[in-house]
Amino acid sequence: MKIIDTDEQEWIGFEREHVWHPYSSIDAGLPVYPVASARGVRIKLADGRELIDGMSSWWSAIHGYNHPKLNRAVEAQLGHMAHVMFGGLTHKPAAELARRLIELTPEPLQTVFFADSGSVSVEVALKMAVQFWQAKGQSNRTKFVTIRNGYHGDTCNAMSVSDPENGMHSLFSGMLVEQHFAPSPQSRFGQSCKRSDIESFESCLARFCRETAAVILEPVVQGAGGMRFYSADFLRQVRALCDRYDVLLILDEIATGFGRTGRMFACEHAGVSGDIMCVGKALTGGYMTLAATLTSFEVSAAISSGNPGLFMHGPTFMANPLACAAALASLELLTESPWEQRVSRIEAGLRSGLAPCTEMSHVEEVRVLGAIGVVELKSAVDMHLIQPRFVDSGVWVRPFGKLVYLMPPFIIDEKDLGILTAAVVKVVGSFG
């Protein structure tokens, strides 16, 4: 094992006392592992250990790490400019990326607003929906309808449409706008939608439609709100209800976009499109922070023609050239690869590899869709105990709540996938 030198000991000690990590406290005592480098599907720690990555760095590094093509794209763009403001200026990487996103996403999405994170892209989508109705003289339409167990981000409006009771954002309930929540559909992916599911949703939408700007959903897969896979038929019927009640539909594809569920976008399982769509995470292959909100000409034209005649949002690092260049290279890498076969192979490996967990008495359910594998336990994990056991097993897996899940890079081979799933079976089994 490598001995950490004095300089490493100094910065690691400073970091532990002064730097926040996601969903943590300064003195939480949770393990944090210094990383020296990463390549392919492996993360190399400062102490010399290597971990097979099962998380794609929160679902973004779909091509793995240190990819030569992505490196070259960033290096080439760096030779021209790292950044220019997007107010009053433009550049080719942004235009080309917008063109590519319009080509890849379902009709009728035709205009693109670049944001700097997934949460911000959701904020943008919500503001677009409100401004759309203001432009049409319906300024009372400022609320949103969604389903429980959803997650749309950590900024305030994004939190307001995330599940209000699963504990993630309940602390801030007093400062958040109150939205309208229908029950989560109980119909599973691959099943027809139960009548009770759609009736519950329609009841909520019908009651509040006159004040509702849009419905917002994660298509088919609910991410950090519970990792639930629900019926594509439910989504299809929600689209029809939005049309019937004259309400916009926002699809949050931040976690599911770019192939993760076996389709380029999860909404394709239902054969529907949103009026507004959010994308992020895997957009740059994990290289840079970048997201985008796409909408139709109908929505963008209404906003542009209404008062004040422009969309009221503009991040400082909007359409950062380095990020756009990385995204263009990542999308080319994805679309020119056999990504569908890779995701299908990962799905099969996750099903077989995680199957032993179904026999464990403390496991509630095992579910797999595309390159997503979930082991749901009957009680919450203890991060102080479970995280080190995964690291000691040579894998990087980051559970939360009752969920131990895998979202590996698409380039992972069968051997490494087998090591990942075996580690999950071993570690989960050790808590039985």
How would you describe what is shown here?
By secondary structure, the protein is α/β, with parallel strands linked by helices. It folds into 2 domains: 6-66 and 338-429, Aspartate Aminotransferase, domain 1 (Alpha-Beta Complex); 71-335, Type I PLP-dependent aspartate aminotransferase-like (Major domain) (Aspartate Aminotransferase, domain 2, 3-Layer(aba) Sandwich), CATH 3.40.640.10. Helix content is 36%, strand content 17%. It is built from 13 helices and 16 strands. The strands form 4 sheets. It has a 7-stranded mixed beta sheet, with helices on both faces. Helix 4 runs parallel beside helix 10. The chain starts with 5 loop residues before the first helix and ends with a helix. The mean pLDDT is 96.
What is the element layout, followed by pairings?
Blueprint: H1 6-18, E1 35-39, E2 42-45, E3 50-53, H2 56-59, H3 68-78, H4 92-104, E4 109-115, H5 118-135, E5 143-147, H6 156-160, E6 180-182, H7 195-208, E7 212-217, E8 221-222, E9 228-229, H8 232-244, E10 248-252, E11 276-279, E12 291-296, H9 297-305, H10 321-335, H11 339-354, E13 363-369, E14 372-377, H12 383-392, E15 395-396, E16 403-406, H13 414-429
Parallel strand pairs: 3-15, 5-6, 5-7, 7-10, 10-11
Antiparallel strand pairs: 1-2, 2-3, 4-12, 8-9, 11-12, 13-14, 14-16
Helix pairs in contact: 3-10, 4-10, 5-9, 7-8, 11-13
